Fold this protein.
Amino acid sequence: MSAHVVGASSKLASKCPTGPLADRWQKHRFELKLVSPANRRRFHVLVVGTGLAGASAAASLAEMGYEVSAFCIQDSPRRAHSIAAQGGINAAKNYQNDGDSVWRLFYDTIKGGDFRARESNVHRLAEVSVDIIDQCVAQGVPFAREYGGLLANRSFGGAQVSRTFYARGQTGQQLLLGAYSALMRQVGEGKIKLYPRHEMLDLVLVDGVARGIVCRNLVDGAVRSFAGDAVLLCTGGYGNVFYLSTNAKACNVTAAWRAHKRGAVFGNPCYTQIHPTCIPVSGAHQSKLTLMSESLRNDGRVWVPRAGGDARAAESIPETERDYYLERKYPSFGNLSPRDISSRAAKQVCDEGRGVGATRMAVYLDFRDAIRREGAGGIRAKYGNLFQMYERITGEDPYQAPMRIFPAVHYTMGGVWVDYNLESTIPGLFVLGEANFSDHGANRLGASALMQGLADGYFVVPYTIASHLAGRKLGKVTTDHAAFARTEQEVRERIERLVNARGTRTPDSFHRELGLLMWDKCGMARNAAGLGTAIERIRDLREQYHRDVRIPGDAANLNSALEHAGRVADFFELAELMCRDALHRDESCGGHFREEFQTAEGEAQRDDANFCYAGAWELDASANGLAWNLHKEPLIFENVKLAERSYK
Amino acid sequence: MTRRLSSSLSSSIGKKALMSVTGLLLIGFLVVHLAGNLTLFSDDTGEHFDAYSTKLMSFGPLLTLAEIGLAVLFVVHLALGLRVTFENRAARAQRYALERDRGSRSFASSTMLVTGCLVLVFVVVHLLDFRFRERASDGLAAMVVRRLSEPAGVLIYLVGVTALGIHLSHAFRSALQTLGLNDTRFDRPLVRLGRVLAIGLGVGFALFPLILFSGARKHTQAAAQAPAPVEVPADVPAVEEAQR
Amino acid sequence: MSSDHAAHAPSSAPNAPHALRFVLHVWRQKNAQSTGEFATFHLDDVSPDMSFLEMLDVLNERLIAAGDDPIAFDHDCREGICGACSLTINGQPHGFERETTTCQTHMRRFEDGATLYIEPFRANAFPIVKDLVVDRSAFDRIIAAGGFVSARTGSAPDANALPVPKGDADRAMDAAACIGCGACVASCKNASAMLFVSAKVAHLSLLPQGQAERGRRVLSMVERMDAEGFGNCTNESECEAACPKGISVANIARLNREYLRALATES
């Protein structure tokens, strides 16, 4: 069952610069090749996805003079799922004079990621965080401000400094609209050609280099190739493999997975983030889960009844019979403990039978004390829109009774493996934002996803892409090249196979079944036996899927069932790899918790001696069926000391 | 620059701004017109009213110029109103199976074209009644009294001024919004002024047919019997459509 | 309801609320060229906890299982922020509930046994793609015409170099909350896009960053808006009432002001 392990491999040249950490990015930028302004228009860059990473990269590259084509599956680039991020964006501005610094943001991020990310990458992220805020403000992003007109900050996600910039509860929306406006400006000037409602279904390699993509026009079903000199995947994460997640319905792994199947190595697929404060599942019809901003934990107290099976209403449970378990277990961080820790604690108490609500799969987030302290008005001023959203979805008034929350899949730290230049193991294929594996290690801190997406798009790839464009001899390639016809043909065959299955079950029903399996076996807690079972089940289900899926209509139209079916097919393959990765990693770290590896107190037990590496999986093209080889990229910590991640 | 200006005035906002300006100017005229007309009630004989009209007529070419100006305002306002209405109908070819309003759409706002057209008809009648008709020997006031003592006359004038009042109740506020004056500290006073204007002008003009017809004023009979030798009076009525 | 797979939850909660019945008249249209018509569906097992789109999901699952074409509708985040959902319920974009998108509307808000007409957003500038899906790319083109601050990446001064009075920042944020769903156009009997355009113009003209392009921006955006075939504003505020983000028509007054100001100052 276990994969062939290749070991520290030349396949994975991280290209991290050496020398003092703080100088590395500057040094690297100087050493990077440049494409002269006059030559840039000769290079055509294909940007797939228009979220924070994609929109910012497309806009920045077009501003520099490159010819850019941008693709998105939504009807407008403005709808990419970055738009849903609520809380904020971190930056080491130290505007609050509370001791923040690039170093502290770097350290918090490395530690938050449970020491499973590259020092060089994370430091670069912290460095450019300050430029991001400047850039966004210049675009007109209406960040919250103080009466003096200066930018406001808040402490977020358990950080002990106030470094989070925010725009009410809509920070992602405002940042994305900023990047989108920059993108549309270039579209208006004719520098970017925009292809909405286009789904990338394959990557085209010419002489081993990424030279194009094959897309399906989702309106008329036409399969068409696009040639370019570099391909940027900015296609987000794969949380929807669990079916229920806080991701948008269209979020999928297909673009990244197709790149993987063309040879791009996939990094740390088992690292998934479960967000602790989501509205619990209400029934079998549930189509997605809604996040309640983590900021609620600043004032809400998390608790469950002390006794199992306590069915009394929350207000009739006396103080002494309540267990404020986060405050009890993690006295210094309490309700603000990091996401992975809070989520796992919630699962634990529910597993003990102490969950609340009709399904018993929820814990209370109680604002009673905060309302007593600040009045309902004060709480409404801070969280009014969130309370309203909760009331709308659940039909319960959170001013009267505590909210019920439960963890939900939220973000995937794993993704396509990239080097320091954000280039994958396929030359010319760059991967940005959540789609790559690079900066968050095994767990992402709150308000860091927006930071990474924009860092990659505005301030990293515009420089590092030159290493490819100027560093390699790129002959002229058009879609007339045989590789395009061949790839297009393969895409058409895959579509036909799905349409022609003419089975009995809907793609959605398979997706739900896969999701439930993944949640049970590869969710908040995993164990070897469960993962082994899951792999078997996934293979069975996958086989059944291709035999028994039912897609009405044909491929020459807008066909939402077909779109979904293609994505589910790729989720089925990814799911197996996630389980394999989780199974091989015999330690607990961040979002990956293996029940066999925990301390006496039930905390995650890392194994730095054996697992201090990024696990990067290469598809074994020679194998019959799906098989992978594992490559290990050792993580070298020269600047921080590996420590147990304690929030007690 | 002029090309820019003309093309901008034919833009959606330009057209609406022009409608607003012409509409507000016409409202201005109505205020003056009503004030002048009220002289009819200042005595029992209609002497003041006739004197006022004689004075107006004495302006000669200047008056003609003013009348042409008013006509231009009226025609521009009307033409833009029609154009905008047809463009708007064309912008949504297909209606919903159910239409349910929930904004501030009102009877007035949804009937601007109808009330505007009614006002147009009324203005024509009104002009034919008093402006383009041979001045009677007993003076304009007597003409007015006679006209508004007939049931048909009363009916036409009541319908006309009611349509005007309804039209104005959406028009003034709408014009302010279109001219961008709705978002300032003058917002409330201006809205109030709009209400006062719509009600004031509507009720003000309605007083004439109502009072004259009911014969509440003694001077009516007296004036009818005592012809006053007066020169041709002037009264340029114009009532118009402001905003759709 | 589909007896399918109850992901992550017991399939029947112990105190599951009783099911609701609805008669749905849904607009079906194969593509932009064809003419559409209403199709009628009877649902008698709708959970009050379902969102409106989840009810359509359930219906679609049945249609697929029966070999029929599922109802096409735009949707994505399902938390009221992406602006994808674009249908009208009984003639009202996003349904009757104020400041709520379709995806956030829950079936418990409807009366049991109700008849619901579900139609696409109707406007000539938003041609129908299929069923309830419309093409709103006109909005993108309006933004491309001028809905931005030209701040090239890398050219920004320090974020705190330019203080913005809190009131201005708050009002800019109020306007910037627009999700570009097009409900304003769909609710307006003239299919006017003024609320959408005004929200962006107001957002950027309120901020010091937006001043350099203030006049040019509004002239270009309005020119594009007109070219796209949207109607004229007749100040009836249906857009404001339909807007899921509560964008105020005061922004339209500001847009008008900005436009007239630009006419006077831009040469």
